[in-house]
Here is the input.
Amino acid sequence: MPKLSRINLHPFKSLDSQAVDEAVILPSGALQHDRRFVLTDERGDFINAKRTAAIQLLRSHFDPVTEHLTLRVEGTDARHDFSLAGDRRELCDWLSNYFGLTVTILENTDGGYPDDTESPGPTLISTATLAAVASWYPGMTVDEVRLRFRANLEIDSDEPFWEDRLVSGGLQPIRFQLGEVELLGTNPCQRCIVPTRHPQSATPTREFAKIFARGRSEALPDWAPRGRFDHFYRLAVNTQPGSGRSCRLRVGDELRLLPE
Here is the structure.
């Protein structure tokens, strides 16, 4: 069976990912610190990459221990350092100036701000899948595909689209375990406009979604639940918590399918 080879956290929704060797799954099913913060405007609407490509030009790093955030605008050298504990007002002012909006930062330490609120667990994909997708676009690398699709968990299977085994032909979720963590595979993740842009320059890739959907349809394994694909602009698997308790994930944990 495949093993967990990478864990990616996104402390701020739509900002850069951070690879870690281990992470805690909260009772809500979310990864601790993943999408813990979100930027909102004066109406309370999210400021994310679906709404504005400008957020993709921000390079970021967050230290959850010190709650220290570093920002840099792509193409510049200036670093902007903020403490979430003491400089949040200054951070909001800097972001407001950058976006031309009145920015507020919201925080949810229990479950974060997942894209799929019905399946708030980590998204999962295999490295072989990333490589297969990269092959559909001239000059694209595995790392670029990884940054475009922003999955939380990556497994080391050599078989592209192995993760489709975690989606059933019906609505019943597939139970599986990673180390001590039990999760439920629910559905192939529907993608949005964000992967169609370069993850750091925000430059649109011509006909990205069209090329992707054609490649995904042609490469779908014979055993995969084709009926769960109302369209083929879907990649990675969404999950729900299986146990409702806090557990720890570690790189190297083996994935095991559990009996229904």
Notes: The CA atoms of residues 72 and 79 lie 5 Å apart. DSSP finds four helices and 15 strands in the chain. The longest strand covers residues 181-190. The chain has two domains: 37-107, 115-257.
